[in-house]
Design goal:
- This protein is an alpha/beta fold.
- The chain is built from six helices and nine strands; from the N terminus they run βαββαβαβαβαββαβ.
- The chain has two domains: 156 residues, Glycogen Phosphorylase B (Rossmann fold); 35 residues, no CATH class.
- The chain has a seven-stranded parallel sheet with strand order 3-2-1-4-5-6-7, with helices on both faces. The chain has a two-stranded parallel sheet with strand order 8-9.
């Protein structure tokens, strides 16, 4: 079985996506079409077949928006059995790609001020070409069902995992410490501020560790 996907650039930073691709590669033939290449991080040993569609480096924001228009038509050339899309689905995706599509959604911004983005997402998740939707938590699954009126049978949950070769359990601190690890996108940041405010109302000496950035 052939599984194909597109990414805006490669190497990329999302450990979960990389782990899924490597696990898929142990069972299936996996093809990754990347819109551009990064020099900022070390490239790991990969088991999947990688194709950079542009022979030069493109700024990340440009490759994120332009890359799918270039890479997704190329997926049809290898005649994949399934196309698994992470963050590169666009409104034209169901028209461009012939194979069944799985949409992987690990974030959901329902407070977007850009109404077009909400309409685009509604069109994608409800489209018949999207045979399955994969998300990371039951909370996100329930939001997808409620907001987009999707059948629960169409959504699968694959939780984020922990690489036990990199992380080991340690003794818990006696202090009240709350860790946030993730992006600091505007909708995440607003939610984080509310969490901090509510926690401090109950526990004034609580400490917060925030790891993440927003590009």
């Amino acid at each position: 079985m052939k599984i194909a996907t597109t990414v805006s650039c490669y190497p990329f930073y999302n450990f979960r996506y990389l782990k899924l691709l490597h696990e898929f590669s142990k069972i299936f033939n996996v093809f990754v079409f990347a819109g551009s290449k990064l020099k900022t991080i070390r490239e790991e040993n990969k088991q999947f077949k990688l194709c950079h569609t542009l022979p030069f480096i493109v700024p990340r924001k440009i490759s994120y928006h332009v890359g799918p228009l270039i890479t997704q038509p190329l997926l049809n050339l290898i005649e994949p059995d399934i196309v698994w899309l992470f963050d590169t689905a666009i409104p034209l995706t169901p028209l461009i790609i012939k194979a069944p599509i799985i949409l992987d959604i690990d974030d959901l911004n329902l407070t977007s001020s850009i109404k077009f983005a909400l309409i685009r997402d509604f069109y994608l998740v409800r489209n018949k070409s999207a045979k399955r939707i994969v998300t990371t938590t039951n909370l996100l699954k329930s939001k997808l069902i409620k907001f987009y009126s999707i059948s629960a049978d169409k959504i699968e949950v694959i939780p984020n995992g922990v690489d036990l070769e990199l992380f080991k359990p340690t003794k818990l601190s006696d202090e009240d410490i709350i860790l946030y690890y993730g992006t600091l996108a505007p909708h995440h940041s607003r939610f984080l501020v509310k969490v901090v405010e509510n926690v401090l109302k109950c526990k004034r000496d609580a400490k917060f560790i925030i790891i993440g950035n927003y590009r």
